[in-house]
Write a structure and sequence with these properties.
Distance between the termini: 77 Å
Largest sheet: 16 strands, mixed
Oligomer: single chain
CATH class of one domain: Mainly Beta
Pfam families: DUF1329
InterPro entries: DUF1329, TAT_signal, TAT_signal_bac_arc
Helix content: 10-25%
Strand content: 25-35%
Protein name: DUF1329 domain-containing protein
Structural class: alpha+beta
CATH architecture of one domain: Clam
Number of strands: 26
Radius of gyration: 21 Å
Organism: Nitrogeniibacter mangrovi
CATH topology of one domain: outer membrane lipoprotein receptor (LolB), chain A
Shape: globular
Length: about 450
């Protein structure tokens, strides 16, 4: 008789034994030494965590479609909101192979910075992130082998994993009847002041005390064209960003209350400033961080870049009118770190807590649930991440394949309203998705810039 060294329930027991422990990622072996040596994570996890076929004992196979008919087989691998989308709203999810090559889970320069700077991060007495010699963070994941909820969460707080980024997007806001109520073209511009990936220039000169700048700019339809919101983030995560905006009706830049972060930017939008990257607020305006559990999950971590479409458009399905969800590929993520936090800096916040499922391989979120003050699920916010390659097609940043997100769903589950945005190759006004380009700050990330763009 053949006795398996790691039976089907081995990983479950392993994760239970890690619950609440100050340990890093990996089940059979620590994860990050493997990534540093060969970028191959397969020796860190047993087969049942690297193959949906093995996990489900053949009931679900790679290439299968998860539908209402078979979703109960993988119910424990889906956040509650996503399970309801499949079970009750006709959502479908295709299963793709688990990614074991860590180079497919990061921008190349960001992974290099993570390995180069490992062990150099610390929190000061206030909870702000610095290097061990007291300087602002210098690039890559601060705590790749994160052991606390704060160490996990701060990887999101540091923003996109490039020096700067332009996310050109098409947004579709779907009503309860499944029909589009609003449609926008918009762009998110970001310039990181610290944690830049160049080892000789980790900071943007002339911006001491700042963390980053972001601008949300709407270019379509005409009644919102030129609407822009600029946030200037401080390094001290106890302080709210400065928030100014240009609204065409006012024909001027005006200051907005910076702590009202739980409101839509434009009509129909269900994503708030607070939601961006699952960490859209200063870290220390949230608190009571805790690790809830570690477990495998299904997540959109690969295979979602629609590079074979000239505009990078993504097919849709589901809901009452067949337009509610993007087609999405998910893989078995071998280890997710599930964390929770509460909005301690917002006495009138309409939310009570958020729960975030973080991929332990690269510490990016795959899903966030936001709960109201009664503890009821309010919002299911999900992003799809991937290397920008498909067959022989490849999008590059510098010498390397681009890695970023490709689409997101922001589902107000109490009112059944969906906002879904996909990364577009180009939107109106000639704005293209791009990373690490010169001149982005001057063009899009100052008061003068948003006034010029609005005019």
């Amino acid at each position: 008789m053949h006795i398996r060294k790691f039976d089907h329930d081995y990983s479950r027991r392993a994760f239970l034994s890690k619950a609440g422990a100050m340990v890093g990622a990996g089940v059979l072996a620590p994860l990050w030494p493997l990534i540093g040596n060969a970028a191959d994570i397969s020796k860190a996890y047993p087969e049942e965590l690297l193959s949906i076929d093995a996990y489900t004992k053949g009931k679900i196979k790679t290439g299968d479609m998860i539908t209402a008919d078979n979703v109960d087989i993988v119910k424990d691998l889906l956040p509650p909101g996503t399970y309801r989308q499949v079970k009750e709203m006709g959502r479908r999810i295709r299963i793709v192979p688990t990614t074991v090559d860590a180079t497919k889970l990061f921008p190349a320069e960001y992974l290099e910075a993570t390995l180069r700077n490992k062990g150099k991060a610390r929190f000061d007495r206030d909870g702000n992130l610095f290097t061990t010699d007291g300087k602002p963070w210098i690039g890559g994941l601060p705590f790749p082998d994160a052991k606390t909820a704060e160490e996990v969460y701060v990887s999101l707080v540091m923003g996109s994993r490039y020096n700067n980024a332009t996310f050109a997007m098409r947004d579709y806001d779907i009503g309860p009847d499944g029909k589009p109520t609003y449609q926008y073209e918009w762009a998110w511009f970001e310039e990181n002041v610290v944690a830049r990936t160049d080892p000789t220039a980790p900071y943007l000169e002339g911006h001491d005390g700042k963390l980053r700048y972001t601008t949300a700019l709407f270019t379509k339809p005409n009644d919102v064209r030129g609407t822009a919101f600029l946030s200037s983030w401080y390094l001290d995560q106890r302080e709210f960003p400065d928030l100014v905006g240009y609204v065409p009706a006012f024909k001027r830049v005006r200051k907005f209350p910076t702590n009202q972060r739980f409101e839509p930017l434009v009509p129909g939008f269900t994503m708030y400033l607070s939601d961006a990257f699952a960490a859209g607020d200063p870290m220390l305006t949230w608190g009571n961080f805790k690790i809830v559990e570690r477990r495998p999950m299904l997540g959109a971590a690969s295979g979602n870049w629609p590079g074979d479409d000239p505009a990078w458009d993504i097919p849709v399905h589901g809901g009452p009118d067949g337009k509610t969800f993007f087609d999405t590929n998910m893989e078995l993520v071998p280890e997710c770190i599930v964390i929770e936090a509460e909005p301690v800096g917002y006495p009138r916040a309409p939310v009570g807590k958020k729960r975030i499922w973080m991929d332990a391989r690269n510490l990016i979120f795959i899903n966030m649930h936001v709960y109201d003050r009664r503890g009821e699920l309010f919002k299911n916010y999900e992003a799809a991440w991937n290397a920008y390659e498909k067959g022989n097609l490849r999008h590059t940043t510098g010498k390397h394949t681009t890695w970023s997100w490709s689409h997101f769903h922001s589902h107000d589950m109490q009112n059944n309203r969906m906002s879904r945005s996909n990364m577009a190759k180009e939107i109106s006004d000639g704005i293209t998705t791009s990373f690490d380009v010169d001149g982005l700050y001057e063009k899009y990330l100052t008061r003068q810039a948003i006034a010029r763009l609005g005019a």
